[in-house]
Amino acid sequence: MAIIGVGHLGEAVLIGLLESGMPPAQIWATAQPAERAAILADAYGIEVGTDNAGAVSEADVVLIATRPGAVERVLDEIAPALEPDAVVVSLAAGVPLAKLAARLPEGTIAVRAMTNVAARAREAATALTAPEGTDLTEIEDLFDRVGVTVTVEESLMDLVTAVGGSGPAFLLYLADAMTSAAVDGGMDRAAARVMVEQTLLGACLHLQSSDEPPAELLDQVTTPGGPTAAALDVLNDAAVGDAVRRAVAAAARRGRGLAR
Fold first, then answer.
1. 258 has pLDDT over 90
2. Which residues are annotated as part of the binding site?
3. Residues 7 and 72 in one domain
4. Angle 220-223-225 (CA atoms, 0-180°, nearest 5)?
5. Is 27 part of a structural domain of the chain?
6. Annotated binding site for NADP(+)
7. What is the pLDDT of residue 256?
8. Which CATH number fits the domain that encloses residue 199?
């Protein structure tokens, strides 16, 4: 397989695939500039260069990990070099299937995937969409190596981008605020980070292991008149829930406009 345009997200997927046991010899990649390509090759023991067409020439799966605005140019570069049965998977937000197909040889399968940086820890949430009737088994298996995978209608991909692609930033924002509050209160920063990391991880694992809605789990950990209730009163007074909804909507709108 080939990963074209390895940036932060592409590197996260690369790390997850290698951690899953995929042999380095099965992965070709490109990155810019040449200095970054050399750093990636040295770090991960894979072939990394700057020639996009050369990287895809023997690949059965091609991941496009460039920024949205560069996708069409990259597809023009690689189209003549693609294997006849290659599957091209775009990780770029906002680039519709129709735009992908228009730049690829007739009959080449195009897939959109929205994943996130948790692929690095093999805990990504990935959504796939493809033309009706496409067999996505191979691509699902690929992304299952770095987390969990769902399939959705293309009309939902901008929302998926907001929830799944931007979602880790929401938690990192919260982690930063919680850590800062602990440090402001006198806690050592290293200890505060450990407490916040494990608290968020534990809460996520608790949510994942339960069939109950998040709101019910929230009620279960909130004792009336207790510290948690006092904290939630502050968050509710600040309309944090509404702010999160607006943030998701804003991310979805931006996703729709990225490649237009």
1. no
2. 4-9, 52, 65-68
3. yes
4. 155
5. yes
6. 4-9, 65-68
7. 84
8. 1.10.3730.10
